[in-house]
Structure formats: structure tokens, C-alpha cells
Amino acid sequence: MTLPSKDDILSQLSREEKAQLCSGKDFWHLHGLARFGLQEIMVTDGPHGLRKQQGEADHVGLNESVPATCFPTASALAATWNKELLREVGEALGRECRAENVSVLLGPGVNIKRHPHGGRNFEYFSEDPYLSGVMARQWISGVQSQGVGTSLKHYAANNHEYCRMVVDVVMDERTLREIYLPAFEIAVTGAQPWTVMCAYNKLNGTYLAEHEQLLGDILEREWGFEGLVVTDWGANNDRVRGLKAGQALEMPASGEPGVAIILEALEEGRLTEAELDHSVGKVLDLIIKGREAQQCTEEADMEAHHRLARRAAAEACVLLKNDGPCLPITDGQSIAVLGALAQQTRYQGVGSSQIIPYKLEQPLEEFQRAFGAERVSFSEGYSLAGELTAAQVEEALRVAQAAEVVVLVAGLTPDLESEGFDREHMNLPAQQLALIDALAPVHHKLVVVLQNGAPVALPFADKVPAILEAYLGGQAGASALVDILSGAANPGGKLAETFPLRQSDVASDAWFPGASRQSQYRENIWVGYRYFDTAQVPVAFPFGHGLSYTSFEYSDLQCTGAGGEGGALVLGESDTIDVSFDISNTGAIAGAEVAQLYVGQLEPSVHRPVRELKGFEKVFLQPGETRKVTLQLKWRDFAWWSVADSRWVVESGQYRIHAAASVADVRLEALVDIDGGAAANRIADNCSLAPDPAGFSDSAFARLLGGAIPEAVPVFPIHTNSMLGEIKHSWLGRKIVSGIKKKIAEDFGSGMSAGEIRMLETIVEEMPLRNLVMMSQGQMSMKTLWRLVHVMNGNYLKAITGAPVTAR
Ligand code: BGC
48 CB less than 6 Å from ligand 1? Predict the structure, then answer.
């Protein structure tokens, strides 16, 4: 059947049909339009594998899904710094979506890792916006090259889990522009994701699902986003305001009550038909584009994808330390493998991204396969729950002492790192730390392998010779790990985030994640290495760090661009500067170096980081080989956001260009004079703070915000955005909460891991009341909820009339 054009379809739709299209049909499908030959398309998680649920649906990864390739999670993929690899992983994910007739994969997540404690850090790429944006752009291009859409999420300022559905992120404009938006901007302008998913939270008082500035002004008009904005699952606050702001699709389904709200708003003139058509047009575009994957009959080559997952996981391994060198394990050495995680590997995070791997390797088995069972001994050492016993330590010491090399697999357990809640500390489980302490003095070849999605404290860093950060490496992480330890693969990953010495060193620590449903981003632009490097705060391992079994030399840095008066390079808004340098492999084996390009202004008129990442290239070199790397710097790479002018400015003056092996290992430096358009020494904007947490005071923050720090939303009176955890003061509230918990226990019952239980409990406690209406699928109307709220507030008369409640 030939498909009519989108405009033809739109012109023939009734208002009801239009209103219906703006919400899901069910948890994972959009409505179809059978009379036009349009079937329901499926959208689903993501991001590091496909979570296609065929039976019961949920948005936190508890019900079954079809087996899929579990690739390393985003924080691991970012540590590869490999643009081509990210595209390849995207292509493979796209192929699996096609094979399962999924039209949109819900990812990637590009939120900034603001603090190591962020619960979903494992799902995010980096603390740096440029690296996050480039990785996302590559991943999106890969998936979409297969005719499958993506959903860039969670737009924006969604950097922790605390009160995630209602929290108000309070942030100044420069920080938003320089730190929290660029990753989205790079991905949108560079790859046009089919959809962008707006986040649960508020930004400066407004829910992202209805944020006109972010959805309309910035995303659509400034960046030219052509796709559709979908809400995160259950993120809609005010349906009509959302549509007016540029949101097109509400997920999951809001059913008849959702349709009624739109129709009523049209009747009353609060929403125009043109506004509704704008959203419906976007939904139709998506359904039409999604048809190809929906009708696809191809199969995916799962074995090829497993091999790709293994290569990606190996490239993600970051060799933090290798004294001796202790690694690689040499021929014939006997190996003691220790740790419960060697048998029950941690390879992905808990929550909506959790998938069922098509097959799963375990480290111990891979060691035995690669080195031969006779060379490998094993002791659990610690268990995943409970205390470390004297017998366990004794046994581990005995096994360790009988071997030439000891590999201890340590890491965060799922109850410590998950969607839904933030981490409370940076420590590894105490039993693991105690075991390392017991082993370190008695074995001089102790290799600690880490499985985690974000930085952990490494109090043993000086006591052990080797540490390998393996991240959450996906289903083939174990063979990849063995590839690295055996030297079959040369480590070429680098940290996409700083490993601080302690959590209190992080600039946002005193305000992270927040209190009273508010999260104040007082640290301004001082996130990750921008802070540590500029304020010269020592770290355990710096951003960009990673060792190799070979060595690299950098030479011959050249910067060329159009010359101006006095030798300055003139840089108009569309001009570029070429930066080139040579890299040589000076060691005896082949390997890859991630060369990083940092830019910093010498005498800025506002506080700026000493250097910021503006380019990188991963270069594979044979021993003795030299290659020239050429990277381009654009005008924006020198710019800062002026709040006074509400635009990017490049001050004329001197800039340093650094070619570096990490942010703390600058190999080559050039100073260039830039004529960038804005005069040097402009009158200082009120938009910056010195990188010193002692100065992040109330008054300094208010100055950044351009007004008083907003009051937090009080708990009482109860309103439709009160969280379930906030209504337990009343008998009715307690009844509602216990009813929901009972239902969840019935639905999911036993079989949940400790992490899943904790996640679910937090999600229930922090769920806003308004979501009960959506969850009830038509059984509870908003008016009924208003009545309940009035009862909980003791306003019985209003409960009888069903007067509206203002949501906050
Ligand atoms: C998560 C999203 C996810 C969605 C659907 C939400 O709770 O925040 O990242 O895509 O659920 O599962």
C-alpha cells in the first residue's frame, strides 16, 4: 500500500486521533494508524543493549526481555576514546533492533558525571561535555545508519538520582551553557537523533518536559533539532504546557484521560490546533521513519556482535598503574584469581538499561580457558554479601602465595551502584578493601582489577603494583580482561573522568545531590578535571590517564590558521585553526595512544579552567611507527558564555594549545595569539567564581543566579507533585503507599537482587502523586487525585467539590 504523505495524513485526522497520537499506545509502542497503513512502532531501552520486553513491561529492568548483546556501558565505552568503535557499536545495536523490529533505541545518555556518587554514572560517558558529545554523536550515527532511531537523554541537567522525578536543579546560565548542554548540542548538531528524551527533573523551577527555553529556544531553534521530543517515562507534569513548549510524545501511555486533557484545552483555546499539529507532525514523521525497522525480516549476527563487544571491552580497560612492570602476565607464570566477582562478574548496571545478555562470560572461566586450568588457582576471597571471615583471608593468602601473579577482581556490587539512588560513599565494599590490605604486604605481584561504573576511592593505590580499571564491560568483559592481562591486547583506554583521592575533594560535594527536593549547582563550571587541574587539587588518577605496554612520544606541534596583524591568528565564527603534531610508538609492541588536545586562555577576564578538552584522536601504531595527527579547532573551542551578552564570546589574546597524554601529562605546548572578535579584558561578567569551594557561598551563588536562591518547595500542604514518601503523615497517605508496595511485591515478588529491591523502594518513595493517575490507566482520574490530596490536607469541603490542586 502506498503511504500518503505526512501532510495528507495530518489533514485527515480527527482531533481525537491527533490527541491520541501524542501519547504512547502502551509502555513501549506508539499508536498506529491502520487506515493509512501505519503500524504501531516499538521504542525501547537501551542504551548498551536491547531491552525488548515481550510480556510484562516496566521501566526499571525487572521483567524479562529478549536476549541481546550486552555491550560495555557508556562509561566504559567513553574510556575507549575510539570514535570509529563507538560508531561500530551503534551499528551493531541498530542491527539488533532491526532484527527485533524495534524502531527506536532509547539512548544514549549524555548527562555529565558531576560527582562520582551519581547513581546512573555507569550509563553516562564522562565528566567532560566535549568527550560525551563526540561519543554520543558517533553512537547515534551508528544506530541511525541502520534505519533505527535513537533517543538522546536525559535532556538536561539530570546528574543524580535524588528525588529524580521532582527535584529542582538550580543552576546559573554559564554553567548550563558550558558544562551541561554542549554534549547534547554536539550530538544534535552532529547526528540529528530521531528523538530527544526530556528529563524528569526541573531546571530553575520548570519541569524539563515543559521547558520552553530548553525545548523550543535552544534545542529546536538554536541547534536546529529536527526530530521529536519524548518525555522520559512518566515525566509529564502538565500535558498542555508540555505540548506548547515543544514536547511531542508522552510516554508511556496516558490513555483516555490524556486525550481528554488535550481536547478540553483545544475547546477552551488554551492549546491551538496549530500547536497540536506541530507535535502530531513530529509523531507521524517518527512512525513513518520507524516503519522500515518495524517491517525488517533480517537477523543479527550475534556471534559477530559478541566479538565486537569483546573488542570494545578490551579497549575500555584503563591501566591505571603498572609498576615493575607487573603486567602483562608472562608465559608460564602461575596465576591466582581471587574474588567472588571473578565468578559472578559485574558487567552492567541495575535499572532501565539492564538487559538479558545473549551469553555471559565469567572471568575465572576465561582465565582457565586462556592460560590453561593447571596454571590458574582460585579462591573466592570475599563474598558478595556479609563479613570477611578469617578463614576466607587465610585461604586467599594460601592460594595467593602459591602463585607468581595474583589477580584480585574487586568492584562495586549492584546494591551500591544503580539507577534510582545515588551512592553514599566512594568506597569499595569493606571486605574487598580488607582483603587487599591483607594481600598487599605478602605478594609483590598483586593486580587489582576494578568493575564499577564510576570512580571509587583507591586507598591501596600505593600498596599494590598494578591496578586495571575494567569498568562494566558487558557480556564479553571477561575475555577482554584476559586479553589485556595476558598481553594479547595492549591497553589503550584512558579515563574519561577524574579519580579523586576522596569524595570531599570534589567541588560539588557539599551540595551533592541536594536537599529538600532541590539541587544547587553552586560549584559553577568547576566539574571534574576543570576544578582539580585549575585549583591544583591532587587526585588519585587524572582525567585522560591510562598506561600502555608500549610508550609514545609526541613531537613537532604546529598551529596554522589565517594570520592577522601582529602575528595573531584571526578566528572568525566559521574559521578553524589546524593543529598538528607527530606521535611515535617508541616501544617494542604495537599499541594505541589517545592524544588529547586542550585549549586554555592565558589571561581571561572571567574565571576559566586552565585547559579544556577540545579534540582527541586515538592512534594505532606499530613499534617504531610515527604518524601525524591533525585536529581542527573552531571558534567555539576558544569561547566562553557571556551571561551579560547572552552569547558565546572569544576574547582576543593569548591561548595555550596543549597536546597531552592526559590532562596532567602535557607533552607539547604552543602559545597562539587569537583575534577572536571580542576585546580583551572586557568588563568582567558576573558569571564566574574562583575554583574554591570555600567561596561557593549563598551570596556568591545568588550573584551567579542573578537573584535570590529559590525557596525549596515545602512538604506541606500536599500537592499533586508530592512524593509518596512525603504523604505518610496521614492515614490515607500510609494506606496509598502500603497498597502500592503490596502491588509491587505481588508483581515482582521474590527473585529480586538487593540492588533491585533498593532501587524499587527508592523509586516508590520518590514517585510524585501525579503518576498514580498514569499508572492507574484510566481507573483514577486527576480529579480523584485532587480529592485525595484535599483529604490528606484536611480540606474536606474541597475534597467534596473536587477543586483543582496546584502542582508544584
Ligand atoms: C529512564 C529512561 C528509560 C525509561 C524507559 C526511565 O525511568 O529514566 O532512561 O529510557 O525509563 O525505560
Answer: no
pLDDT of residue 64: 85
Nearest CA to 469 out of 596, 361, 346, 321 is that of 321
| Residue owning the nearest CA to atom 11 of ligand 1 | 59
Average pLDDT of the chain? 95
Cα distance between residue 417 and residue 386, in whole Å: 17
Average pLDDT over residues 250-257: 92
Is the Cβ–Cβ distance between 170 and 204 less than 8 Å? yes
Q: Is the CB of 153 under 6 A from ligand 1?
A: yes
**Which residues have a Cβ under 8 Å from the Cβ of 18 and sit 6 or more positions away?**
10, 262, 276, 277, 280
CA 235–ligand 1 middle distance (angstroms) = 10
Mind telling me the catalytic residues?
A: 232
> Sign (positive/negative) of CA torsion 549, 550, 553, 558?
negative
422 lines ligand 1 (CB under 6 A): no
The owner of cell 568506597 is 427
Q: List the beta strands (DSSP E) in 561-652.
A: 569-570, 576-585, 591-601, 612-621, 626-634, 640-642, 647-649
- How many Cβ atoms sit within 10 Å of the Cβ of residue 3? 12
**Biggest CA pair distance of the chain:** 84
Phi, psi (rounded to 5 degrees) for 689: -125, 150
Confidence class of residue 335 from pLDDT cuts 50, 70 and 90? very high
Ligand 1 binding pocket includes 45 (Cβ within 6 Å): yes
Span from the CA of 52 to the centroid of ligand 1 (angstroms): 13
Can you name the residues that pair with 337 across neighbouring β-strands? Answer: 378, 407
User: Ligand 1 atom 5: the closest Cα is on which residue?
Assistant: 59
Ligand 1 near 106 CB (within 6 A): yes
Atom of ligand 1 at shortest distance to CA of 123?
A: 9
Of all atoms in ligand 1, which is nearest to the CA of residue 61? 12
pLDDT digits (tens, 9 = 90+) for 720-751: 999 999 999 889 899 999 988 888 878 776 77
Place 633 in a pLDDT band, splitting at 50, 70 and 90: very high
- Asked if residue 231 has its Cβ within 6 Å of ligand 1, the reply is no
Residue 783's nearest CA partner among 262, 264, 257 is: 257
Ligand 1: centre distance to CA 44 (Å): 9
State the DSSP H helix or E strand holding residue 734, giving kind and residue range, or none if neither: helix 731-748
- pTM for the whole structure: 0.97
Give the pLDDT confidence of 62-80 residue by residue, as tens digits: 788 999 999 999 999 999 9
Lowest mean pLDDT segment, chosen from 55-59, 236-240, 553-557: 55-59
- DSSP letter for each residue of 770-794: HHHHHHTTTSS-HHHHHHHHHHHTT
Could you give the CA distance from residue 805 to residue 785 in angstroms, rounded to a whole number? 9
Mean pLDDT (whole number) for 690-707: 96
Choice from 106, 161, 231, 355 to test ligand 1 binding pocket (greatest atom count within 8 A of CB):
106
Beta strands in 646-759 (DSSP E): 647-649, 653-662, 665-675
Q: Is 233 in the pocket of ligand 1 (CB under 6 A)?
A: yes
Atom from ligand 1 closest to the CA of residue 109: 9
Decide if 347 contacts 56 (C-beta within 8 A). Answer: no
Q: How far apart are CA 410 and CA 344, in angstroms?
A: 11
Of all atoms in ligand 1, which is nearest to the CA of residue 45? 10
